[in-house]
Amino acid sequence: MLSHLGVLLIVLFVFLVPTDRIVAAACLALGTLVDLIDGPLSRYQKRSSNEGKLTDIISDNLRFALFIVGIVYARLSSGLVGVIYVYVVALSFCLRTVNRVAELESWEEFRLTGGFLILPNLVIGLSYATFLVLVFSDRNYLSPVYPIFSVILLFDCLFSYIKLVRRAKKESH
């Protein structure tokens, strides 16, 4: 349920970022905080489930995509850069998740807390931080930073893909 609140807050961000960056930043921060406590709270309440894990993955990616939509909507970065960035982040998540599941005996062992998504999550966190730099200093580093993050994640995608191919070849022999 908290994942849905995080998505709602980022939708508010999209509409607020062109006119009120401080309130938009508050929505972003609150949505991020909600996302950070969602999983641990579910585990503490012993309500953790595969559906919850899937909902978390989907809402995390949706939140990031909507964040970029807001950035582009406010004309803080170009649409092309935004589209490429969202695609590369999603591809990195997908390849890393497939690699992680392939390492396990079953879906039941799958945990998002294992750190295997640390690079894309770090890049997303840095993206949010770069926006906060804009909000509080009026210096826009979004357009030059997003392509750099995209290239970093493209290399991550390449390494993840190579790892998958090697695993598939090893398993077929």
How would a textbook summarize the main sheet? none
Q: Any idea of the CATH topology?
A: Four Helix Bundle (Hemerythrin (Met), subunit A)
CATH superfamily: CDP-alcohol phosphotransferase transmembrane (TM) domain
Secondary-structure element series: HHHHHH
User: What is the total domain count?
Assistant: 1
What is the number of helical segments per DSSP (H or I, 4+ residues)?
Answer: 6
The termini sit apart by: 44 Å
Sheet/helix structural class: mainly alpha
Helix content: over 70%
From the alpha carbons, calculate the radius of gyration and give it in angstroms: 17 Å
User: Based on DSSP secondary structure assignment, what is the total number of beta strands?
Assistant: 0
> What are the segments in which pLDDT stays under 50 over at least 5 consecutive residues?
none
> Mean of the pLDDT scores?
87
- Please give the CATH class: Mainly Alpha
Overall shape? flat
User: Architecture in CATH?
Assistant: Up-down Bundle
Residue share in β-strands = under 5%
